[in-house]
Amino acid sequence: MASTSDIRNGLCLNYNGDIYSVVEFLHVKPGKGNAFVRTKLKSLTTGKVIENTFPAGHKIDDVRVERRKFQFLYKDESGYNFMDNETYDQVTLAEEMLDRPEFLKEGSEIEILFHAEKNIPLTTEMPASIVLEVTYTEPGVRGDTATNVTKPAIVETGAEVKVPIFINQGDKIRIDTRTGAYQERMKS
């Protein structure tokens, strides 16, 4: 058992019969009344984000989780297949457990959070950004680079990304996996 003073970003806890991860927290000490902790909690099973306020000193039931690096192998009818880099164990996850499966490329690494006691996967975390090659986009017209005009581009995983007009087929680009937005063109 932990208390509200142990709350930090990333802490996993049992709350209302579900496992939640702390996304944001704020310790508040008003001039009058008792202190409290305002939190945003994300359900690891449904992905739903809720806000909750805990009184100071309140006991919370924390959950021990383990982060393990896995390599993406392939996708089939049963789901997405990953391999543990250390033990070579394989695990298959449903598409709902992945944040941005459209950016997964064979061989790319992600972290999977496991419930330590039950050894079941809870959620996945993609790297902050990924470098992919543009497989198709319309050619840019010379002189259209003065404004912030974007065009659709298909990357090697099949995902569509809005890119600046100067990006051409064959360019490698960095994509933010949290938002799916273009970040930069990579040097060859």
Short account of what is shown:
By secondary structure, this protein is mostly beta strands. The chain is built from no helices and 16 strands. The chain has a 6-stranded antiparallel β-sheet, with no helix packed on it. It has a 5-stranded antiparallel β-sheet with strand order 9-8-7-10-11, with no helix packed on it. The chain has a 5-stranded antiparallel β-sheet with strand order 14-13-12-15-16, with no helix packed on it.
Q: What labels describe this entry?
A:
OB fold (Dihydrolipoamide Acetyltransferase, E2P); 16 strands; five-stranded antiparallel β-sheet; flat; 3 domains; single chain; 188 residues; mainly beta; SH3 type barrels
Largest sheet: 6 strands, antiparallel
State the shape.
Answer: flat
CATH topology description of the largest domain: SH3 type barrels
Averaged pLDDT, please?
88
Task: State the separation between the terminal residues, measured CA to CA.
Answer: 52 Å
